[in-house]
Recover the amino acids of this structure.
């Protein structure tokens, strides 16, 4: 157990729907990062939050949004889902605003859009 | 454009047969190069960080090295439990973002 908790582990939904993925960072970590992993593209950075504030943005679609709450857990919201959004979504955390010592990853949420 | 390329995509080794995985990168202002191990259905697990050319890190049968343009992950006398996907990532100059390669899938046959 890495200390980063992601729920749910699996999610199957239809095109056009909206889902919310949840992440609880490792105890004491202030930063949360979201990554998308698909078979052909590897891990793609989506967004980072640090202590409740958006810190960095990557290749995140406008249909996707995220937030970090006062208790530091984070949610990734995916809307108007398309078949191509099927992927593994990973959350990672680090103690501070920069991942200088690497991240700690959760086990991921496997999203299947049908 | 910043890019990380890993080779080979897949590697099959007999138990005890040493080999190396390659990670080449084109990132300006590299802050760090990271190696992760990923088992099926799990999140990547941190292995090493390298910060400057010439640096080496070791952990059990794994040894990571770094030059100005690439990194190698050497696997000495691998065992079946070393079977996994090995990911390389470089830290962007801002420090916030990592660029990941697509990984090398390693299979070690008993």
């Amino acid at each position: 157990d890495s200390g980063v908790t992601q729920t749910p582990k699996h999610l199957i939904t239809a095109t056009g729907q909206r889902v919310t993925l949840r992440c609880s960072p490792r105890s004491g970590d202030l930063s949360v990062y979201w990554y998308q992993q698909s078979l052909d593209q590897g891990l793609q950075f989506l967004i980072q939050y640090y202590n409740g504030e958006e810190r960095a943005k990557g290749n995140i679609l406008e249909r996707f949004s995220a937030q970090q709450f006062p208790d530091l857990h984070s949610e990734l919201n995916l809307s108007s889902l398309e078949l191509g959004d099927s992927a593994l979504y990973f959350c990672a955390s680090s103690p501070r605003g920069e991942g200088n010592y690497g991240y700690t990853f959760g086990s991921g949420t496997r999203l299947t859009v049908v | 454009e910043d890019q990380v390329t890993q080779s080979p995509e897949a590697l099959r080794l007999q138990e005890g047969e040493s080999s190396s995985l390659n990670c080449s990168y084109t990132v300006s202002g590299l802050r760090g190069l990271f190696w992760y191990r990923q088992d099926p259905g799990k999140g990547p697990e941190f292995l090493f960080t390298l910060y400057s050319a010439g640096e080496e890190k070791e952990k059990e049968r794994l040894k990571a090295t770094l030059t100005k343009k690439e990194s190698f992950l050497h696997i000495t006398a691998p065992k079946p439990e070393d079977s996994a996907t090995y990911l390389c990532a470089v830290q962007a100059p801002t420090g916030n973002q990592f660029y990941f390669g697509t990984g090398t899938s390693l299979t070690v046959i008993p």
Remarks:
- Chain B touches chain A through 24 residues (CB under 8 Å).
- The first strand of chain B starts at residue 3 and ends at 7.
- The CA atoms of residues 32 and 88 of chain B lie 11 Å apart.
- Chain B has a mean pLDDT of 92.
